[in-house]
Amino acid sequence: MANMKNILKVLCIFTSVFVFSQTKSVKKITLKKGAKTAVKKGPAANKRNPDLVVINKDLPVLIPKKKGDYFGYVNQNGKFIIQPEYHIAVFFYEDCNLLNSPNEKVRKFGTKEYATVEKDMISYRIDQSGKRVYQFKEADFGKCVFEEYKQQQFQAYTMNGFYGIIEKSKFVNAADYRQFQIYPQYQYLYIMEGDDVANPMIVASNNDKFGVIDVNNKIIIPFEYANIKRNFSWKLGKMFEVTKDGSNYYYVDSNNKTY
């Protein structure tokens, strides 16, 4: 009987050790599975915002838009993604002062993934979710390194009070109408800054209305606006800043679609 009790004790001890060892093994397996699951979830967390739709690949995914007295950003469908709260809002684009900052930690905020905005006389860089990620400090400003200037191929030419376009390298004799790229016929012409000097966009005025033409005198934006700003909107965003009433400006693309 005593021997039987001793045998039972040994069995109980063996069983406890076996169960304990299996429990530890299960825990280890669980931890490994947990680690693998965390890795798999990583890419999902970095998913692109579905609201940043791309209808026109030539346009920015976020476009400055004014509502009331403040600016925010809309997507290519015209939906506000960053609500209007800023006095100034520009395109998402590089800031060379920050890209070349002596403070290495802020250089990333100079990339085109961020935009400059201003509120209450304070300037910030925001990301595409609208989060303010950096407040400008003069001590962080570096020296801009500019690309070599691209010499314009065409220029405006006035004759008898009207504006035309000439190709500088070929133009010699104003008496020969064939030497004009566009014979003088407009009230005003201005060649927009852009990367393609062989095919620039040209702000023109005709019958007291503004539109946009190309160097072949093709109308890109119809002559229906009170003004079109001569700024960097074409170079930075492939868009034109226009107004019909002389005070409320908004953006249109090269198809005259409003944003």
TrEMBL record:
Domain of life of the organism encoding this protein: Bacteria
Pfam families in alphabetical order: WG_beta_rep
The protein's name: WG containing repeat-containing protein
Species assigned in the record: Chryseobacterium rhizoplanae
